[in-house]
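User: Sequence in, structure out. Go.
Assistant: Echoing your sequence, followed by the structure tokens.
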Amino acid sequence: MSPRASALGFVQHIGRKLSDLWSFYVGPVFTLPMLALPWLFRDRKMQVPLLIGGTVAVGSLIETWTQPHYLAPAFGLFILFLVQSMRHLRLWRWRGQPVGYGLARAMPLVCAAMIVLRVSAVAAGVRIEPLGSRGISPRGVVQRELEAMPGEQLVIVHYGPKHIPHEDWVYNKADIDAAKIVWARDMGADGNKELLAYFKDRHAWRVYPDEHPAWPEDYVPAPGKTGFAATP
């Protein structure tokens, strides 16, 4: 039975979806103003937007397959909730002091600082994010590194037992022989002999897409085995 078929599995699945949505749309910066979201239920003008937003959220959470960008049509609702929450945050007081005013004004400043930080990092060539987090897939990261190397490359891809089939790494240009990088599926040490013989002039690599980070290693077949051994 699938883990999602149980009540616990369903709750865990919902939790993962909520975590993905929080990371994609809210993040640490907007978490504070969104804590004022319950105050929106007291506002009569927000009843219809809240009803629409709740319907969209429930409909997305109960779906088997949901990606954060599927909720993009409702992004305007999120902006509305965020702005209204910031208005309520602005009125917060702590021991008689209007602390909410400073917190609300700090949100745009933090966002501006993040933009400056990212632009400065790109200009300086400094990586401040994990590989593949800037819209480049892990395969794209590997491909970019191999394209910068001299000579032609052969990448043998070894999928793990839990690999997601939608995240395919093995596809090539129409003219495979003329491509700088050729991607091939691992067929085991014996099955790869013909492939290696045909592309004998290329540097052979192996890569495990299911490892993090997925990074190419020199390919060396282990004697008497169907797997791989890393170059010492």
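User: And one key feature?
Assistant: The longest helix spans residues 7-34.
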